[in-house]
Amino acid sequence: MSDTAVLLEEIQSLPPNLAAEVLDFVGYLKQKSGKGTPDGEAAAPRAEKPAALPHFTMAQIEAAAQSPKVQAIVGALKGAGLPPDITMKDIREMRLTEKYGI
């Protein structure tokens, strides 16, 4: 079976919400290789309705913050030798800077 046939079977077996992600990834690969459109220009991004984000109540957020997994992360950060005045926001900004140069 050819690679194309295998890809088609795999894509057809995906749930509809993941098919859109595959399409976006194909666009990324085309842009990366310089083959966005037949004339070599990248295709214009599609205007799609963004997926709805889940809504959480404050009670759900507070319960999640008290979960053992989150508490383990908080404990690890407290014992990491970070300056006492550093916040989670500071850590996130440092990570974004490291990863994306923001």
How would you characterize this protein structure?
With 102 residues, the protein is an all-alpha fold. The chain is built from 5 helices and no strands.
What is the distance, rounded to the nearest whole angstrom, between the alpha carbons of the first and last residues? 44 Å
Number of strands: 0
Please compute the radius of gyration using only Cα atoms.
Answer: 21 Å
Largest sheet: none
The tally of helices reads: 5
The shape is: elongated
Helix and strand composition category: mainly alpha
* Helix/strand order, N-terminal first: HHHHH
Share in β-strands: under 5%
Q: From the structure provided, what is the oligomeric state, counting identical versus distinct chains?
A: single chain
- Helix percent reads 55-70%
Mean pLDDT: 78
Uncertain regions spanning at least 5 consecutive residues: none
List the helices and strands and how they pair.
Layout lengths: L2 H10 L3 H18 L24 H8 L2 H11 L9 H13 L2
Put the structure in a nutshell.
Helix content is 59%, strand content 0%.
Looking at this protein, list some descriptive labels.
single chain, 102 residues, mainly alpha
